[in-house]
Amino acid sequence: MAEKKGRILCVDDEPNILRSLSWLLQREFEVFTANGGEEGLALVAAHDFDVVISDQRMPGMMGSEFLREVRKLSPRSMRIMLTGYSDLQAMLRSVNDSEVFRFISKPWKIDELPAVVAEAASIARHHPEPDAVAGEASARASAAGVESLLLIDDEATLAEHLRQELGSALRVIHAQNIGEAVGAFAENDIGIVLSDTRVGDVDTTAMLRMLKQQHPGIVTVVYTAGTDAGEVVSLINQGQIFRFIPKPVKPAVLALAVTAAGRKRQQLKANPELAGRHVVVEIDADSKQAFSRNLDQVARQSIDPAAQLPFLQRISGGFKRLFGTAA
Amino acid sequence: MTPIRMTSLAGAPLAALAGNSGRFRLLPFFAAASLAMFLLVAGALWYFERQQGAFFRDVQNQQIDFFKQVQDDFASRQDSVARRDLLSIHEAGNVNLTRLFANALWERDFAPFVGKAGQISVDECRALADVPDAKDGKPKPSAEKKACFAEIGKKIAAFPEFAGLNAKVFEMMKKSTVFKIKVFDLRGITVYSSEHAQMGEDKSLNAGWLGAAVDGKPTSELTFRDKFSAFEGVVEKRDLISSYLPVLAPGSEKVVGVFEVYSDVTPFLNQIKATSADIRKAAADNQDKVEAAAVADQETVDDSGTRTLAIVMLLLLLLFAALFAIVWRAAALIARQEMERDHAQQQLAQSEKMASLGQMVAGVAHQLNTPLAFSSANIQMALQALARFALPLQVAGSFSRLVKATDADKVMVNVASARDRVADIDPADLDVQMPQAMLQDTLQGIEQMRELVENLRDFTRLDRTKTSRVDLNKSLHNVIYIARSVIPTSIEVKEAFADLPEMDCNVSQLNQVFLNLINNAAQAIGEHGTITVRSLVEAGRIRIDVEDTGSGIAAEHLPHIWDTYYTTKPAGEGTGLGLSIARTIVTEHGGEIAVQTRTGENSGTTFTVYFPVAA
């Protein structure tokens, strides 16, 4: 028998699902199943799992709670959330609490799921455990100097608030639209991006997703008023968003998220290998095109025609730096 | 915290009032009430107007009467004064006349004559008894007595001096207004009368005689005679003054006899009467004028009253018309607003329904998603497994053909050519049980989906008539099944059902109520807790409890939970119609809905629905 690609734990309250998953995965992986959070945690304590797959809706312990516990118990295990129910609150919680690697929606595709699990297992096996370098990273954090935070928001209140609260620890750059944001990338070494999902009437998610693809070291925090679960799924899978903050943004929550993002950034900087744990799914061509169109539009809307050329140059420079290709 | 209990019944009459049954109909009510009031006011005004007219008439009549009285009084006073004056003037005249008469005739002629007559005894006649008069019962001299006195008169007339005396008297009185003279002696006996038949009469009891003879005072009286024998023959219809006059002895105050003189005052009296008639006529004229004026005044008053009444009525009518128009507009406005509100509420109720439907659909979709997920994965895997069976089956087929083609027990097979292909056969792929199990699971998945669809159908009951006879336990079980797919899985839903009698109801509506109550309970709980749905028969009623271990309802919200549009959820999440609709539905089923809640430690809320047991 060939060597298995990894040890997997599947948790779901529905035995049929567990059976179906193990049939699907047992060929390539060593599969364990548990029909609830408690049972799953017992198994996690007993075995060293590369990947933990959990359903969100379960009686007793919810999937997000379970994965949060898994993250504490076994930080090196990659966490995948299996969900068929668009419960945005639960999704946001699972992002923030358990930092899931992927959302897999039910029903899953039998050729995709093993591939995702295989990728996750490979990352778990070949990339360092995050907490093992955490202490080291934080030790270096103070020496690393002031981090730059790019805030993409069409309103100034939040920028002012951030400067007041975290101005000493962070350099806050405020971009009023995606054009300015792209420009800011050209001129600064941005470590943390804080953005609304919509700035003006432009969707920023495509940019955020593309950003992470090219620069795994950038930590992204998103706040959103929307309730579109699909958007959250794509932001996680393609953008590896670090934290989601529901709108209206509470200052304390924001400060907490930004501080955590700063720590994460330090970790990633100290150990670039760690970024491998946040590999993203390549963004689809349609989203890329849509983003280009938006950027184009923003460039044309620029108020000062005289300033347009350098602005475009800046953008194009930023774009190159950002995404590696010309717009 | 102590449990707070309240029922929806408190609000029920209000709802009934606002409902169709007891609708307040503004326009008819206003029209009827105000019209009645206006009619009352008009009636009262008319009545007072009439009263005033009657009072005025009364006052006028009184004044007329008084005026008449005054005039009559004046007239009669004038008349009586004139008569009195006439009497006293004539009396004085008669006194003088008598004096003259006495001076002329008494000493020489009458004194001896009276003295002689005085010698005739009258005691015999006086001794005769009086008889009661037929008319008034007073004692009157009998005919016999009168005859006795008449006899005395005849004796006196038979005196030889009588003729001369009589002639002298007649001579003196000729052509005067004196119609008759009588002379009485101090006994009261008529010793002379110009009407000879009256001589001898006893006047001792006559008040006039007594006044003159005893008190020495003259007395006069006005009388009317149809026939009277005067000096110059009989006269007719005459007003006369008769005076009793004392005769004093010349040169002294001593009464020696009494004259009775009749003097004619007819012309004076006629004059007086004419004057009186004049006055009376003038009074009557005045009276007529006053009455005419009164009638005119009355008419004026009545006219002005009628006019006032008419104006006031007209004004009232105008006021009524104006108010009616205003109220009519207001009623129309209110009706339109009510319609708009109803419409808005209907829309909101519809959106509420759609929202809960959407939530339910999402839940059901999730519920459906699980069997769908593993079934579709299983079928794909089973298909792959079947595909992997192709090669081994080919091999088995070739082998079976080979075996069938020969009768020998041993067959030589050249496997060299097949070795490569057979090498592809993985022993793990030959497991038939696994695909079987996959398909078996798929069948289970399909069964789950069927159950869901069945529950969904039972929940909506779109294929049933509106009202049907059902066992509420089944319905509740169905609702809980649907609810479980909507509410978080961390919330446990317990069923505690007792046997219930069947009841007639609109199942789809009641399902909506119970789903709403369970959803509310789930929202009150949040993440972890228990919802207990209990059914029992209590005091002849069906009782359904939906009990949660949630946070309870704060005291400030409790009185409002049944209010339409009252919600504690942020705008856009709750319409505030859920419980309001639930109560309406329960009330329509003849039931009652109540709540008991407890906040703080050991908090929780129980909604209880009662239904009457069908007869």
Query: What is the averaged pLDDT score of chain A?
Result: 78
Oligomerization status of the protein chains = heterodimer
Give the overall pLDDT of chain B as a whole number.
83
Largest sheet entry of chain B: 6 strands, mixed
The total strand number of chain B stands at: 15
Protein described:
- The complex is a heterodimer of chains A (327) and B (615).
- Chain A has 327 residues and is an alpha/beta fold.
- Chain A is built from 13 helices and 12 strands.
- In chain A, the strands form 3 sheets. In chain A, strands 2-1-3-4-5 form a 5-stranded parallel β-sheet, sandwiched between helices.
- Chain B is an alpha+beta fold and 615 residues long.
- Among the domains of chain B are: 120-272, PAS domain (Beta-Lactamase); 461-612, Histidine kinase-like ATPase, C-terminal domain (Heat Shock Protein 90, 2-Layer Sandwich), CATH 3.30.565.
- Chain B has helices at 12-18, 26-118, 123-127, 143-157, 161-173, 207-215, 266-405, 419-423, 433-460, 472-486, 507-525, 578-588, and strands spanning 4-7, 130-132, 139-141, 178-184, 190-193, 219-230, 233-248, 255-264, 468-470, 491-497, 503-505, 529-538, 541-548, 592-598, 604-612.
- In chain B, helix 9 crosses helix 10 (472-486).
- The longest helix of chain B has 140 residues, at 266-405.
- The model of chain B is unreliable at 6-21 (pLDDT under 50).
- Chain A binds chain B through residues 13-14, 16-17, 19-21, 23-24, 27, 57-62, 84-86, 106-108, 110, and chain B through 362, 366, 369-374, 376-378, 380-381, 384, 428, 434, 437-438, 441, 444-445, 488-490, 492, 527.
